[in-house]
Specification:
The complex is a heterodimer of chains A (96) and B (487).
Chain A lengths: L6 H10 L6 H18 L34 H6 L4 E2 L2 E2 L6
Antiparallel strand pairs in A: 1-2
Chain B lengths: L8 H9 L5 H19 L2 E4 L4 H13 L11 E5 L26 H8 L3 E6 L33 H8 L5 E5 L6 H7 L2 E4 L20 E5 L2 H11 L29 E5 L9 H16 L3 E5 L7 H16 L18 H12 L2 H14 L5 H24 L2 E5 L15 H6 L5 H5 L4 E8 L5 E8 L4 H15 L9
Parallel strand pairs in B: 2-3, 2-4, 7-8, 7-9
Antiparallel strand pairs in B: 1-3, 4-6, 5-6, 5-10, 9-11, 10-11
Helix pairs in contact in B: 7-15, 9-11, 9-12
Classes of the chains: A mainly alpha (96), B alpha/beta (487).
Chain lengths: 96, 487
C-alpha cells in the first residue's frame, strides 16, 4: 500500500498548496496523506462507468442578476485589514 | 420556576412579546450566565459589548412600535466565528485571521438583526471549521458543559456549548460534514442543517462551498424552526441560494407523527456504533412508532463510500477556497519574507494550523494533474451514485432516522493524533452534505457517564417542514430534556 507521494510529488503538492513545510512536519503529513489516500481509494471498488460526475446538487443553473452597485467602494474599510498598505494601496515585498 | 437561562429561545421571545419580560432582563440574564460559565467553558472568542446598550434600547422600542414582531424579537444569540460580523473580529479560530474585522455582515446575521435578535458574541470552533472536536482552534479549548473533561464536538462546538450551558438560548453554526449536528448531539441541544441553498452563504468564510450551510442551534426543534425562518430565503448575493418558498415552520410543530413514514438504516446502527447510542436511537424509533409513525428498518447502500467521497471533495474545495489567504489583502503576513512568493508560502505556513494544512495538501494532491481523474472526478461520480441512492430511499420514506454520531463525546486530547480515525467518526453526518439534504439533530438520551446522545432526522431536499415536525413530535413524546449542569 501507499507509496504514491515520492519527493517530487510532495514538492509539487507543497508548491500548489503554497506552503513551506519543515522537514519533520513534511514527513509526518506525507505519512498521514498516504494513510488517508489508502483509505479513500476504497472508491475504486465502485463501478462508475457511464456515471456523470455530480458537481452541483440543485437544478438551478446560470443565475444572473443586474450588476447594480449597492455599496460604496469601501476602500478604507478594506485597507484597514491589510497587513501593510501605503497611499491607499496594498503593499507587498518586491516581486522581481 | 424556570430561570431565564433555562428557557428556550421561543419561550423567551414569547415572554418578551407579551411584556412579561423586557429585553434588558433577557440580555442581562445571558450576560450573567456567560460571566459564570466562561471561566471554564471557553465557548466565546469575542463578546459584542460595544453598542450593546443602545441596541437593547432600539430593539425594546422596535418591539413596542411593532417594527420587530417575530417570535425571536429581543432574543439574545451568538454566532460562530466563521460568519462575518461588521466591526466584530471574525477569526475562523485561526491565527491567519486573528486580527480580521469584517466591514460587512453576513446575510444570515443581517436577517437576525432585522428580526430584532441581539448578538452577544462570537463562538469558538475548529480552525476554518476543519475538525470534529473544536480542539483545532488556534485560541482556546472549549469544554463540554456536561463534563469538562470531554470535548463539545465540532466544528460548531462553541455555539453548541454556549446554548447547552444557557449562555444564549440560540446560536448560528455552520455544517459542512456534520459540524452543527454532531456538536449539538454531544452537547444535548437541537441543531438544524438546512437544505443546501436555503440559507445564504454570503459572509460565511468558505470551507467547501458545495457542502457548507449555515444553520440554527437551539434548545428545541421549535427554536431551530424559528431561527431557521429568520435566516432562510433567497439572497441575490449568493447565487446558490434558493428562491423555493418554504411554509411557515412555527405552526407545523404541532403536526404530530400520524402517517409519517420513517426509515432507519441498519448500516448506521451496526458494530461501529456505541451500544448506548444504538439503544437510544432504537428507543426513539419505537417511541415514534407508538406515536403513530410507520417505522421500519431498511438497508442503505454505499455507506462504505460516504467518507472517502466526502473527504476528497471537501479537501479539494478547501484547497481552492483557502488560496485567498496569501498575506496580501487581509490576514496574517509573515515578517520573515523578502520576496513575494516566499511571503505567500511563509505566511500560510505560519498562519495555518496542522489540520488545515493537511486538508489543503490533500486537496492540492487530488486536484493535481495526473491524479484529478482518479480521485476528484471519481469522488464526484460516487457522489452521483450516493445521491441516486437517497432519491430511491425518499421514494419510500418521508424521513430517515439515524444517530448524529457513532459515539458520545470523547475525552479532550484523544482525537487529534489519528486524523483518519477522526474522519471516520463523521460517518453518520456526511451523506447529508453530499446530497444537500436537511437534517436536524435532537437529544435522545444519556450514556452511562451522563453524556448526551443525539438522533438525526434527515429529510429530502427542501423538506425542513417534515423533519422539524417529526423532531418536535418526538420531543413531545420524550419530554423535556435536562440541561447541562456545568460539571
Amino acid at each position: 500500500m501507499g507509496k504514491r507521494i515520492d519527493d517530487a510529488v510532495m514538492d509539487n503538492v507543497e508548491l500548489l498548496a503554497k506552503l513551506s513545510l519543515g522537514s519533520e512536519e513534511r514527513e509526518k503529513v506525507r505519512g498521514e496523506m498516504e494513510q488517508i489516500l489508502d483509505y479513500v481509494e476504497k472508491l475504486n471498488e465502485l463501478d462508475t462507468d457511464g456515471v456523470d460526475p455530480l458537481v452541483h446538487i440543485l437544478d438551478e443553473v446560470n443565475v444572473f442578476r443586474e450588476d447594480v452597485e449597492t455599496n460604496g467602494d469601501g476602500r478604507e474599510d478594506a485597507l484597514a485589514n491589510a497587513p501593510k498598505s501605503k497611499d491607499g494601496q496594498y503593499m507587498v515585498p518586491k516581486t522581481f | 420556576m424556570k430561570k431565564l437561562y433555562q428557557m428556550s429561545a421561543v419561550e423567551l421571545g414569547r415572554q418578551i412579546r407579551t411584556g412579561e419580560l423586557i429585553v434588558k432582563e433577557a440580555v442581562d440574564s445571558c450576560l450573567e450566565r456567560i460571566n459564570e460559565a466562561e471561566p471554564h467553558l471557553h465557548a466565546f472568542l469575542a463578546r459584542n459589548e460595544k453598542g450593546l446598550e443602545e441596541r437593547i434600547c432600539e430593539v425594546e422600542e422596535g418591539i413596542r412600535k411593532g417594527r420587530y414582531h417575530g417570535p425571536l424579537a429581543g432574543v439574545p444569540a451568538a454566532v460562530k466565528d466563521n460568519i462575518c460580523t461588521r466591526g466584530i473580529p471574525t477569526t475562523c479560530a485561526s491565527k491567519m485571521l486573528e486580527h480580521f474585522v469584517p466591514s460587512f455582515d453576513a446575510e444570515a446575521v443581517r436577517r437576525m438583526e432585522d428580526a430584532g435578535m441581539i448578538l452577544l458574541g462570537k463562538t469558538n470552533m475548529d480552525e476554518f471549521a476543519m475538525g470534529s472536536t473544536t480542539e483545532t482552534s488556534y485560541f482556546q479549548t472549549t469544554v463540554n458543559p456536561w463534563n469538562r473533561e470531554h470535548v463539545p464536538g465540532g466544528s460548531s462546538g462553541g455555539s453548541c456549548a454556549a446554548v447547552a450551558a444557557g449562555e444564549v438560548p440560540a446560536a448560528l453554526g455552520s455544517d459542512t460534514g456534520g459540524s452543527i449536528r454532531q456538536p449539538a448531539s454531544y452537547c444535548g441541544v437541537c441543531g438544524l442543517k438546512p437544505t443546501y441553498g436555503r440559507v445564504s452563504r454570503y459572509g460565511l468564510i468558505a470551507y467547501a462551498s458545495s457542502l457548507d450551510q449555515i444553520g440554527p442551534v437551539g434548545k428545541t426543534a421549535a427554536d431551530c424552526a424559528a431561527l431557521f425562518e429568520v435566516i432562510a430565503g433567497k439572497d441575490e448575493k449568493d447565487s446558490t441560494s434558493s428562491g423555493k418558498p418554504f411554509e411557515a415552520t412555527q405552526e407545523l410543530i404541532s403536526g404530530g407523527l400520524q402517517g409519517m413514514r420513517i426509515g432507519v438504516p441498519e448500516e448506521l446502527l451496526g458494530e461501529g456504533t456505541q451500544e448506548e447510542v444504538r439503544n437510544a436511537v432504537w428507543k426513539g424509533a419505537q417511541m415514534m412508532k407508538e406515536g403513530g409513525a410507520r417505522v421500519e428498518f431498511f438497508s442503505l447502500g454505499l455507506t462504505d463510500y460516504l467518507i472517502p467521497a466526502y473527504y476528497i471533495i471537501a479537501c479539494a474545495e478547501a484547497s481552492s477556497n483557502l488560496e485567498r489567504f496569501d498575506g496580501v489583502k487581509y490576514g496574517y503576513r509573515s515578517p520573515e519574507a523578502s520576496e513575494l512568493h516566499e511571503m505567500y508560502r511563509k505566511s500560510r505556513q505560519e498562519g495555518f494550523g496542522s489540520e488545515v494544512k493537511r486538508r489543503i495538501l490533500l486537496g492540492s494532491f487530488v486536484l493535481s494533474s495526473g491524479y484529478y481523474d482518479a480521485y476528484y472526478l471519481k469522488a464526484l461520480k460516487a457522489k452521483a451514485l450516493i445521491k441516486k441512492e437517497f432519491d430511491r430511499v425518499f421514494e419510500r420514506y418521508d424521513c430517515i432516522l439515524a444517530p448524529a454520531a457513532p459515539a458520545t463525546a470523547p475525552k479532550l486530547g484523544t482525537s487529534l493524533s489519528d486524523p483518519l480515525k477522526m474522519y471516520l467518526s463523521d460517518i453518520d453526518t456526511v451523506a447529508v452534505n453530499l446530497c444537500g439534504l436537511p437534517a436536524v439533530s435532537v437529544p435522545c438520551g444519556l450514556d452511562r457517564e451522563g453524556l448526551p446522545i443525539g438522533m438525526q432526522v434527515i429529510g429530502n431536499c427542501f423538506r425542513e417542514k417534515e423533519i422539524l415536525r417529526t423532531a418536535a413530535a418526538y420531543e413531545a413524546l420524550r419530554g423535556e430534556f435536562p440541561m447541562a449542569q456545568l460539571q
